[in-house]
Every structure is written in structure tokens, then in C-alpha cells.
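Handout, section B. The chain below has 214 residues.
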Amino acid sequence: MNAPMFYELRRPKRIIPNKNYPALFLIHGKGSNEHNMFDIVSGLENDFFIFSIRGHIPQPPGYSFFTFKIYGQPDREGFDEGIQLISSFIDYASEEYPIDVNHMYLLGFSQGAVMSMTLALTLGHKIKGIVALSGYIPQFALEEYEIKPVDGLSVFISHGEKDPVLPYQWGVAAQEYFNEMNASVSFYSYQEGHTVSLKNQEDFKLWLMKDVKS
């Protein structure tokens, strides 16, 4: 089976036969690529199969998963295609690698966080949880997508209080929405801009390692 998207993979150095491993799918931000997310998850490769996915839309100096027509409103055609492709990639990885399908996580930054939160709503209990770093949920996704139950879904949302790109309140609104949907939400705020601080990395890694054991 051919992969529906370009990707890089990190896996435990020692693979135990007949053992299935938790999976972490990395979704990068605007103009980035599949190589640039591994630094922030350093140390997790001994416990997870980590798939870093390349966006399907060329956007120098890298790629994106969607573009914008209006600020805060993704172009619908590219966005819909991105959701479909990542969903297909998760199915591909589940079939091709020794993955524990009960412990699959999405982790995204900026537009990668936008995709992760939207995918959480479209995939529902197919995934165990998400880590959404500095993102938001597009309004059309809430109004027009088929929303699956997310009760009990593990959700880590973080946002910089000084974010000049995506307002802090957008992250708060996403947290409030998932709480209303009875997901298990952890929300972290930082005195940062549009970035992933070392403290943020430490917090989500600890959260992931705790959640994957639950």
C-alpha cells in the first residue's frame, strides 16, 4: 500500500516482536516541512512510532496543509483535502506498522494544531488524543463537518498569551468547546508569542507519557 502523504518516521531503536506501539502523528505549521517537528518531541522516539507528515500544498520555503482566503478562515478546498489525506495516512500507518490503534495521538503546531483539533472532531474515538499547540477550530468545521463524539478524548491545548499571529482567546475558545463536548482537556498558557517554549515541550511530553499509560 502506497503512503498517501510524504513523511519521516522515528521509531524505537529496539523493536520487540509482536508488540504494538503508541503512535504520534506530527503536523507542522505554515511553510514548514516533515523534518522540522522532531526537535520538539525529542526523547519520545523510544516509546512511540513518530510519523511526521509533509503538507500537501507547496508554500515556500516548505509546505502547508491549507492556505487562507481571509485571515482566520482557511481556504476550504485545500483544508478539506488535508483532512482527508491525513485521515487516510493514519489508516495507512495503522496497516503498515506495529501500531497500537488504541493509543494514536496527533500533535500539531499553528496550522498543524488547527488540523489536529479538526481531525479530533471528525475522527472521534478513533484516536486517543491530541496535542494542539497555538491553534484554533475553524467556524465552518464546527458548523458544516460531521462532528463525532469526543467524550473522554484526551486533549492538550496550549497557547501563548502574547501570540501576535493567532490570538490567545482563540485557544481559550477551543479549550471551552472541547470541555463542553466532555473531552478530557488540559489547558496550558505561557508568557510567550507564537512559539513552543521549552516549558511547553516539557509539559506536553509529561502529559503524553502519563496519558499513554492510561
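Note. DSSP finds five helices and eleven strands in the chain. Compare this with the example in section A.
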